[in-house]
């Protein structure tokens, strides 16, 4: 590996999902002004709006929003082909 090319501030950081208060610890170089204490250790805190515990795709709560009626138009157009 090349010397002195890696970031100096690569450390453990807590990411907190604000929608459901899920927190996980991982390494990152992201800057943060806030800190949080977990098990007696103080970590920088990064707040995120969505994570794998609240994203509809990963939780299985994906909803099809068809505001323009595209699904109905498709079904009407190709209903003759189906028969």
Write the layout of secondary structure elements.
Elements: E1 11-17, E2 23-28, E3 34-38, E4 41-48, H1 56-59, H2 70-82
Parallel strand pairs: 1-4
Antiparallel strand pairs: 1-2, 3-4
The number of distinct structural domains comes to 1
Series of H and E elements: EEEEHH
Oligomeric nature of the chains: single chain
- Strand arrangement, major sheet: 2-1-4-3
Helix content: 10-25%
What fraction of the residues are assigned to beta strands by DSSP? 25-35%
- The tally of beta strands, per DSSP, is 4
Overall pLDDT: 84
Radius of gyration: 22 Å
Poorly predicted residue ranges: none
In DSSP terms (H or I, runs of 4 or more residues), the helix count works out at 2
Largest sheet: 4 strands, mixed
Give the N-terminus to C-terminus distance in angstroms: 64 Å
Shape: elongated
Task: Characterise this structure.
This protein has 83 residues and is an alpha+beta fold. It has one domain (11-82). Helix content is 20%, strand content 31%. The protein has 2 helices and 4 strands. It has helices at 56-59, 70-82; strands spanning 11-17, 23-28, 34-38, 41-48. Strands 2-1-4-3 form a 4-stranded mixed sheet, with no helix packed on it. A hairpin with a 5-residue loop joins strand 1 and strand 2 (23-28).
List the main descriptive attributes of the protein structure presented here.
alpha+beta; 4 strands; 20% helix
């Amino acid at each position: 590996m090349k010397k002195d090319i890696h970031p100096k501030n690569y450390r453990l950081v807590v990411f907190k999902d604000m929608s459901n208060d899920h927190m996980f610890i991982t390494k990152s170089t992201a800057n943060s002004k806030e800190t949080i204490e977990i098990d007696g250790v103080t970590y920088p805190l990064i707040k995120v709006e969505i994570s794998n515990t609240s994203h509809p795709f990963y939780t299985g709560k994906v909803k099809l929003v068809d505001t323009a009626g595209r699904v109905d138009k498709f079904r009407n157009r190709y209903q003759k082909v189906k028969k």
